[in-house]
From TrEMBL:
This is Chitooligosaccharide deacetylase. Is involved in generating a small heat-stable compound (Nod), an acylated oligomer of N-acetylglucosamine, that stimulates mitosis in various plant protoplasts. GO terms for molecular function: hydrolase activity, acting on carbon-nitrogen (but not peptide) bonds; metal ion binding. Belongs to the polysaccharide deacetylase family. GO terms for cellular component: membrane. PANTHER family: CHITIN DEACETYLASE 1-RELATED (PTHR10587:SF133), GLYCOSYL TRANSFERASE-RELATED (PTHR10587). Residues 63-249 form the NodB homology domain. Residues 1-27 form the signal peptide. Keywords: Hydrolase, Metal-binding, Signal. Gene3D superfamilies: Glycoside hydrolase/deacetylase (3.20.20.370). PROSITE patterns: NODB (PS51677). One of its GO terms (biological process) is carbohydrate metabolic process.
Amino acid sequence: MSPAACRVVLFLSVCLGASLTGAEAGAQDCTGKLGTSRVMQVDPVGLQVGTKHFPQTLDLADREVVLTFDDGPLPGTTPAVLKALARECVRATFFVIGRNAAAQPDLLRREIAEGHTVGHHSMTHPMTLADIPYDKAVADIEKGIKADDKAAYGASGTRPRVPFFRFPGFGASPELLTYLGQRGIGVFGADLWASDWNPMTPEEQLALVLARLDHAGRGIILFHDTRAQTAKMLPAFLTTLRERGYRVVHIVPALPKTATAP
Ligand SMILES: [Zn+2]
C-alpha cells in the first residue's frame, strides 16, 4: 500500500486496509474505496449502547456508521460478506453464535485475520435469554464466549478477548444486564437495522436499509451475515455509502485499565 493509496482515509493517518494480514489483503489497493475512516476504542465497562434499546449510543458524528453482523459464521454467506468488506477496505464487527464459531473456526479466524472485531452472541441463540431461567441464560452466555474464544484463539480465559456482547433478539433482562456489567462486558444494541430476518430481494433489502440510514443519518447498523439477501446487496450498499458521503467507524475494545502501583 503506497501512502497515496491512503489519502482517501479521513481522520486517521493510518490506512487500515493496508494492515490486513495475508497475501490477498497485502495486495489490496484501497484507492478510491470506502475505507475505514477511524477506529473507536470502546470501554466495555458499563457499556450499553444502541438507541433501539438504550437511551444512549456511541459517540458518532453525522454520517458515521458502525457495521455489525450477527449470527455467523456460516459457510456461503459469511465469506461473501467478508469479500465485500475487503473489497471496500472496510472493517466491521461480528457478533457470533458459539456453536457456529465452534463449527467454523477457520471462518472465525479469517474474520479476525482480516481485521474485524469478533464479539459474542450466546452459545445457542435462545429467543430470548430473558425468557429462560437466569442460570440457564448465564450458562449459555458463558458457553458462547468460551466456544468463540477457543475457536478463535485456541484457548479461553476468564475474561473474553473482546468483551462485547449482543443479546439474541435483543432479549435482555435487568438481571442479565447487571451480570454482564459485573463481568465488564459491554452490551451492544443497534441504532437501526436491516430487518434482514424478513425475506426480501437484495434490491428491496438495499432500498430499505438505505432509507433507514438516510433517515437516521448515523448509527450502529445491524445486519446478519447468515442471510443471502444481505450478502448479495452488501457490495452495492458499501458503494452507495461512499457515494453519499458516509464514513465507516471500526470499534475495538479499549485496553483494560491497569491498576496504578501504590
Ligand atoms: Zn441473532
